[in-house]
């Protein structure tokens, strides 16, 4: 919290109460954001609604742009990636851009194109593993289904629509221990044969196709009459909503905290800024599978937006800019403490984590880390540092990819969490709000370096 020691008592109490209330509202709204964002398309749609409500104008990549100062804009690609920015009131080539990056996708199980499986009267769907999924936690969960569906409507027009079944519609039952005595000591998961979820029971004569069920769902959600389902990108997800956990509500448990938490923090920070400085948020899809796509961090999306915004002065603007790549970090697990370097084990609720890897799996350098530490220290807020054990491999983020594409000074940072890439993950209730406060200050700071 703030440093209140030298303020008058009544004013100090007022600020403390205000911060506590803002913190509580931040976490409450975070849960709402997570619950309405079961897929990247839903997350981007939610962000679009919030940006539009705050006066940001949507841009279309197919049209000319006429950007003005002191205005907010956003542009979406593929419905699953978004760039939102404030133009600020100054010459962006000399003042630079305060950037925050995150990603919209999370490891999950995606429905295959021809998914129907009928076995002993059970209707199941074949699934493809997306990203580095921790598979065992997917068993014995209430699962729902959501994503994007492309249809031919009654007027013969091809159009995209979002669907979200919301209620539990599927289950992946474990094999009973009586039939697998080694389950607790030597269990492996075959993604092809072990993971198809059970959706319902049907008679042997049943010919219902999955696209028939999709057409019905589209009609129920949107009122749209579907002549034909032409394609879909659908993911199963944990039907249980995000929640506070712990005897003192110390934690938040949810699906997709990696990395919708950072998307939410970046969005709230951008919305909170004064607008005087040029600031930008990019939330890319496909980080969990390498980011090589038209809308991924290795693709041209962000560069294309900057080219159209800044034009010939882009190189100068980038030299005066900084990117904060926000993606969750591995908190030290009390049951597996030996998995961390003894001097670099981040603790939940003790501050965001500056991520360092000199082999460039993270893009942090001493300069970018110093900027964050300085702002955090000024606000009286905690921060930590993570370095992977020297005898273990290190994950990565969009940070090095964006730094390499743009040539921008970059910091990798994230909120510490447990259970990364599980169907349900855990963070502390303090750290997201702390990162939000620092990023808000960063995105409206007059001088970065």
Layout of strands and helices, then pairs:
Blueprint: H1 9-35, H2 40-53, E1 57-59, E2 72-77, E3 81-86, H3 92-95, E4 98-103, E5 108-119, E6 122-130, E7 143-153, E8 158-164, E9 198-201, H4 210-222, E10 226-238, E11 243-245, E12 251-254, H5 257-272, E13 279-284, H6 301-310, H7 314-319, E14 322-326, E15 329-330, E16 353-355, H8 366-378, E17 384-386, H9 398-406, E18 409-414, E19 416-418, E20 425-428, H10 431-443
Parallel strand pairs: 1-2, 4-13, 4-14, 14-18, 15-19, 16-17
Antiparallel strand pairs: 2-3, 3-13, 5-6, 5-10, 6-9, 7-8, 7-10, 11-12, 12-20, 16-18, 19-20
Helix pairs in contact: 5-10
What does this protein structure show overall?
This protein has 449 residues and is α/β, with parallel strands linked by helices. It has 10 helices and 20 strands. The strands form 3 sheets. It has a 9-stranded mixed β-sheet, sandwiched between helices. The protein is globular. The model has no long low-confidence stretch (mean pLDDT 94).
């Amino acid at each position: 919290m703030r440093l209140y020691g030298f303020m008058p008592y009544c004013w100090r109490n007022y600020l403390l109460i205000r911060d506590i209330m803002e913190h509580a509202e931040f976490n409450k709204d975070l849960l709402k954001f997570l619950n309405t964002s079961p897929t990247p398309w839903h997350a981007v749609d939610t962000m679009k609604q919030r940006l539009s409500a705050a006066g940001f104008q949507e841009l279309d990549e197919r049209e000319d742009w006429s950007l003005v100062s002191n205005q907010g804009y956003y542009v979406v690609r593929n419905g699953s990636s978004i760039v939102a920015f404030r133009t600020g009131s100054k010459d962006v080539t000399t003042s630079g851009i305060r950037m925050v990056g995150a990603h919209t996708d999370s490891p999950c199980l995606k429905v295959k194109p021809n998914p129907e499986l009928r076995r002993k009267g059970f209707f199941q769907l074949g699934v493809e593993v997306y990203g580095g999924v921790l598979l065992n936690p997917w068993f014995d969960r209430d699962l729902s289904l959501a994503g994007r569906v492309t249809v031919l409507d009654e007027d013969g027009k091809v159009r995209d629509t979002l669907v979200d079944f919301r209620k539990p519609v599927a289950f992946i039952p474990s094999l009973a221990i009586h039939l697998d005595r080694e389950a607790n000591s030597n269990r492996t998961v075959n993604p092809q044969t072990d993971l198809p979820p059970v959706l319902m029971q049907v008679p042997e004569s049943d010919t219902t196709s999955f696209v028939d069920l999709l057409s019905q769902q589209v009609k129920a959600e949107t009122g749209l009459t579907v002549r034909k389902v032409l394609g879909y990108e659908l993911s199963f997800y944990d039907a249980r909503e995000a929640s506070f956990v712990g005897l003192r509500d110390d934690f938040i448990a949810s699906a997709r905290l990696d990395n919708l938490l950072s998307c939410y923090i970046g969005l709230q920070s951008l919305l909170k800024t004064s607008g005087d400085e040029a600031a930008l948020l990019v939330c890319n899809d496909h980080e969990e599978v390498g980011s090589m796509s038209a809308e991924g961090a290795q693709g041209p999306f962000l560069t294309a937006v900057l080219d159209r915004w800044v034009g010939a002065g882009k190189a100068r603007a980038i030299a005066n800019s900084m990117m904060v790549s926000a993606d969750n970090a591995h908190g030290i697990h009390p049951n597996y403490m030996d998995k961390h370097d003894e001097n670099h084990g981040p603790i939940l609720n003790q501050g965001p984590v500056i991520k360092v890897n000199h082999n460039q799996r993270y893009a942090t350098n001493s300069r970018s880390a110093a900027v964050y530490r300085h702002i955090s220290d000024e606000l009286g807020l905690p921060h930590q540092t993570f370095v992977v054990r020297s005898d273990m491999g290190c994950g990565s983020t969009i940070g090095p990819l964006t730094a390499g594409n743009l040539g921008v000074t970059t910091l990798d940072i994230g909120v510490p969490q447990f259970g990364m890439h599980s169907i349900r993950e855990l963070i502390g209730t303090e750290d997201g709000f702390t990162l939000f406060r620092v990023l808000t200050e960063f995105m409206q700071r007059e001088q970065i370096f």
